[in-house]
Amino acid sequence: MEYNVTNISPVKKQVDIEVPSEEVHAALAATTAMYRNDVDIKGFRKGKVPSSVIESKFKKQIYSEATNELINLHINQIISELKVNPLSGIEVDAQQMVRGQDFNYSISFEVAPQFELPEYEGLTIEEEDVEINPDEVKMVIERIRNNLAELVPVDEMRNPRDGETVVIDFQAFKDGKPVEGVKVDNFQMTLGEGNALASFEELVRKLTPGQTDESEITLPEDFLNKELAGKNVMMMITLHSIKEKKLPDIDDELAQKAGGFETVEQLKEVIEKSYIGSRKQLNKGSAQKKVLDELKGKVQFDLPQSLVQGRIEQKISELRNKTEAKGKSFESLGKTREELEEMFKAEAEDLVKSQLFLLAVADKEELTVEPHELDDYLQNLARSSGQEFEKLKSFYEENNLMFALKDTILADKAMERIYEKAEVKIIPPAKTSDSAREQQDQA
């Protein structure tokens, strides 16, 4: 086997491979021999069937397997000799081998770009200090009170109000017939939180416990059932009961229920400690991103398009999941595939450039990832997502995601190394508006 390497671009290589007919013959003979040892053919003893008979009976399978095995053998040899690390799947352009003929094919793959790293040691990094806002601690206490609130039935015969929880049955009808999939009994919902159509909640507000009424409602254009999206249906609702929240007092009993704390003061101390820790990590991350953006701005290099496309696909998938989690159809966004790709292109390119820059730092610093670090990462991911560790690990292994995971950990280590070698200057926190602070907390 001989091969010739062509640099299609600074980040893409093509390898043209020439295989002489003698090697083709040897590969086919080896695969045929394996079939001879494993198959039973009437009239022949096992392992004694002539090669010509085996090849005639299993020609399609033999030629396909022999071709794939030879190509895989060559790929491993070539990648090892070139000392390269393909960033994505290797594309193979090959036909099937033919006995008695030379076999020519090509492979192509993308590699990390080569560039000179700017000086990243001894940088000055400004990081905001953490300042506890008493109002934010109070907000956490209020969330705890809401989570531990009791729902107490309202005895008064009246209409429900915003903030109260109702238990209802509802059923949609179209042309006098029940609509499949739009019927729920004993459904519990809180009014005024925007989780249901305004017209739906308005009908509920008109009812008293035990009462049933109906009204025409227009379903939203992004309704999951496309056949009903934007259509009018008759909605029948029965109100069973009204419940109001009874918030617990801010006392030691609340602290005990919230997490086994002896006093409210202990609860507040833990909240403040958690706030400081999470805010420090947030401020550190912001400082690291700022210095990374500055470093990236000093270098220019081609981006492997397979990585960029992979990031775009990831962003589109995340958008789809978020949209459908809200009960809306993905198509309701009204964007074409091309528009979605263009929408995420700049962000994807920035993420890829960050990753490649940090991987270059990791290489220079000779950073490595141990097997237990991969397991630790997946253990944490499994806990946070409620998945089983073994199943999650198998998914990563079966879908060739372990290399990408390793790169992610390496990039994180590289960022930490830059941070460790920098002079970190703590500066007073910037004044943050309530809306901006709320967005940071949600992030």
Summarize the structure.
This protein is 48% helix and 20% strand.
Description of the structure:
The chain is of the alpha+beta class and 443 residues long. The protein folds into 3 domains: 2-110, Alpha-Beta Plaits (2-Layer Sandwich), CATH 3.30.70; 150-246, Chitinase A, domain 3 (Roll); 263-442, Trigger factor, domain 2 (Orthogonal Bundle). 48% of the residues lie in helices and 20% in strands. The longest helix is centred in the middle third of the chain and has 33 residues, at 264-296. The two termini are 54 Å apart. Residues 439-443 have low confidence and may be disordered.
The structural domain count equals 3
Distance between the termini: 54 Å
Largest sheet: 5 strands, antiparallel
Overall helicity: 40-55%
- Unreliable runs: 439-443
Q: Architecture of the largest domain, according to CATH?
A: Orthogonal Bundle
Strand content: 15-25%
Under CATH, the topology of the largest domain can be stated as Trigger factor, domain 2
Order of helices and strands: EEHHHEEEHEEEHEEHHHHHHHEH
CATH class value of the largest domain: Mainly Alpha
Number of helices: 13
Quickly give the structural class. Answer: alpha+beta
Notable characteristics:
13 helices, Alpha-Beta Plaits, 5-stranded antiparallel sheet, Chitinase A, domain 3, 20% strand, 443 residues, Trigger factor, domain 2, 4-stranded antiparallel sheet, alpha+beta
